[in-house]
């Protein structure tokens, strides 16, 4: 089935349509925020019975996709209340049919979607997801229990990758300081 058959896609607000005095009042959701959300499985997240009231503000548990990086994540409490610009979209799903974490896994990593994205974005000098492309992607949905297992495993993997990257950066800083100290002691 196509994504537009199981999800509603609401594109973020065009920043040029926001008055200057309103721009200063809002914190914008960024790609760094998305990467944070992608690496943090929100175990305390309680499934909502209704969707967010605003098309443009993020709420805990919403699924957001970046059209530029073509990555999706579930909003964590830390990034709740931020404004989405036109480079992002909120994806509203029926959580009785689709696990939000599984949906992010499929959009980010599943081979079935990767092939379709590659084909649909071919010919672009700068490959960028569009709402039309997103709506036309075909998705296969296993039962909800399997979706939940896969989705949580994926987010735990993302968290592990982030922690390994942080560890590597800290080790690099530590060893560079040791080398620099040694070099200073020799001069």
Report on the structure:
The chain is of the alpha+beta class. 45% of the residues lie in helices and 10% in strands. The chain has 7 helices and 4 strands. It has helices at residues 3-6, 20-23, 31-38, 100-109, 111-120, 131-136, 144-186, and strands spanning 7-11, 63-66, 71-74, 88-93. A 4-stranded antiparallel β-sheet has the order 1-4-2-3, with helices on both faces. The longest helix has 43 residues, at 144-186. The radius of gyration is 19 Å and the shape is globular. The mean pLDDT is 85.
Strand composition percent = 5-15%
Query: Regions with pLDDT < 50 over 5+ consecutive residues?
Result: none
Please list the strands of the largest sheet in the order they lie side by side.
Answer: 1-4-2-3
Largest sheet: 4 strands, antiparallel
Series of secondary-structure elements, N-terminal to C-terminal: HEHHEEEHHHH
Radius of gyration: 19 Å
Roughly what percent helix? 40-55%
Q: Provide mean pLDDT, rounded.
A: 85
Based on Cα principal axes, name the global outline. Answer: globular
Question: Which structural class matches the secondary elements?
Answer: alpha+beta
Tally of helical segments: 7
N→C terminal distance? 68 Å
Q: How many E-type strands?
A: 4
Short précis:
The chain is an alpha+beta fold. The protein is built from 7 helices and 4 strands.
Keyword list:
187 residues; alpha+beta; four-stranded antiparallel beta sheet; 7 helices
Which helices and strands, and how do they pair?
Elements: H1 3-6, E1 7-11, H2 20-23, H3 31-38, E2 63-66, E3 71-74, E4 88-93, H4 100-109, H5 111-120, H6 131-136, H7 144-186
Antiparallel strand pairs: 1-4, 2-3, 2-4
